[in-house]
Amino acid sequence: MVTIKIFLDKRRITKEETCPLNFRIYYGGKSATRSTKIYLKEDQWDSGKKMIRKHSNAVLLNRRLHGDYSVCGHLFRGTICEIYTLMTTDNTVKALENAVHSLTGGHLYNVGGLTFRTLDNSNIQVTGSTVKHDLTLITRSSCILEMGDVKKEFMRMLDLSTAFKDYIEDKAIQFCLIYDYGMGGVFLCEEVNGHITWSPDVR
Known about the structure:
Number of helices: 4
Strand order of the largest sheet: 8-9-10-11-12-13
Largest sheet: 6 strands, mixed
Oligomer: single chain
Radius of gyration: 19 Å
Mean pLDDT: 82
Strand content: 35-45%
Order of helices and strands: EEEEEHEEHEEEHHEEE
Structural class: alpha+beta
């Protein structure tokens, strides 16, 4: 199990009254601590939601912190995403091998935040969840960005496991994005062969 702790290091306050935002990842009996190279005042960090707030670049910094996003043609690779990927690769490979057996039996299987389901002999559904906490803030533009993240993670998994890649190879992929509210999911959109179908509630 992976545990991630993100925190303001208040021991290292600067002359500008800002603190470095650090994170620590625990996995398999090991831990790694890294600086995000982001400095914030205490009221600019929401420790509950793990999000930056009240900052002129809050949207961009949150994207940089939590994942890979393309913004105005520039790729921002999430610091947490990088370390998490390095620490969980072996576990992911094993999970993908297990997924093949589960999917063959017609069951759902979750690997690294993606849920796989065999629709029939020729079609696989790959579902990811939005990182947004407020359903009212979800737009078609934000969904397209996050759908891109789902597809990147799926392609990474194909590269990790030959068994998984062989199972997927002759099947059509249906990518889905949902809003996970804890007890279920709200459909946002799905993409098949480059065509996106939208929920009427997403504008």
